[in-house]
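Quarterly update from the structural biology core.
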Amino acid sequence: MKQFFKNPLGLFLTLLIILMNLCRNFLWLVPSSLMSPMMAELGMNYTQAGLLVTIVTVVMGVFLVGGNYLLNYLSPLVSMVLGMGILALGGMGSCVVQSYPLLLASRVLVGMGYG
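Predicted structure, tokenized:
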């Protein structure tokens, strides 16, 4: 273990994984508590608002199963970094988009990163 932390890249990835594990729950759970203001601002109905919350779980389940096949071709480190990158892209997209289709696409990316 000491040898792992001598490499600055290993330490950086460990800290990044800890940060992503802390932040990913906020990406998944916070939009449900902010759904009323989001519905008013984006002009969504209840079906569209519910889809924003459930799509993360559905896509996560699909990519949990499909991700097992990726591990046959990629190393665990590469798949972890790829998942964190997709999760970060979806999280940043969720914060800056101003239309429903782009917000839904960002939520799909969050689910892919989770999976």
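The longest helix spans residues 8-33.
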